[in-house]
From TrEMBL:
This is Farnesyl diphosphate synthase. Its cofactor is Mg(2+). Its EC number is 2.5.1.1, 2.5.1.10. PANTHER family: FARNESYL DIPHOSPHATE SYNTHASE. GO terms for cellular component: cytoplasm. One of its GO terms (molecular function) is dimethylallyltranstransferase activity.
Amino acid sequence: MPDQGTMSNATRSETYAPLAAAMTETAEAVSARLSDLIPPVSEPEGRVLDAMRYSALAGGKRLRPFLVTHSAALFHVSPSAALTVAAALEMVHTYSLVHDDLPAMDDDDLRRGRPTCHKQFDEATAILAGDGLLTKAFEVLAGPAAHSDPAVRCELVWELANAAGGHGMVGGQMVDLMAERGHGGVALDVPEITRMHQMKTGRLITFACVAGPIMGKAPARMRACLNAYARDLGLAFQIADDVLDETGSAQDLGKTPGKDAAAGKTTFVSLLGLEGARERARLLSDQALAHLEVFGDEADLLRAVARYVVERKN
């Protein structure tokens, strides 16, 4: 494989073509499942359903659903069940984006290349849409379409609730807000920002990767390997995000760049510099790859993801 740091755009496209095709297939499938799970209605509450659909069906990489379906495939889990769990996770992720974009949080007008939910509708509707997506996710996970075994469904609900809550994504968002100038501007060092991103971003990525072994009732060693892979992958993904926020354009990113610097946030780039941050992401990507050795060739697409997250341009 060509050196990742010097890979041309043409070579990058060729190298990641199988991954791109697989991610597109998953994205289309999860969008179809989300559309089925959140149908439009004509009753007065239909406005909030419209806002939920607007945000959930807005596209995006669908990385987390991809990780669910392909971790599940390692253990020969029903593709339909895996897709249902993937859709539930994407609802939680989408709710976090809807709320993250609100004026009280990041105050952003652009998400996935189009107006954010509160700009397209209004702030109150966006808050309710996020609430609706979060609660719908657990309704879906608790249903038989997610798994035939109620004990497995309970474990999935428990794991996702922990990943999304006060000691997970929500807690990480709180730490992130406290580090902004407007909330006291507490400067974070590398261990602190690492912990914050492991909570804010990493916990949902970890759920995506361990959902497969949970559904497949896999041995603890297999689950531990995917948990370690997810830990390094999630942090590499976030560092790459920090780099893109510094170097990307709104057209490439589908959102407003430079927001972190404008808010006075500590980032991996501000702590390590651009090249230092890129090198840290590459190191984490290599570590993630090592955790997949036990799965052999069946994990090749997960290996490609670990390389892709540090090479992506959006």
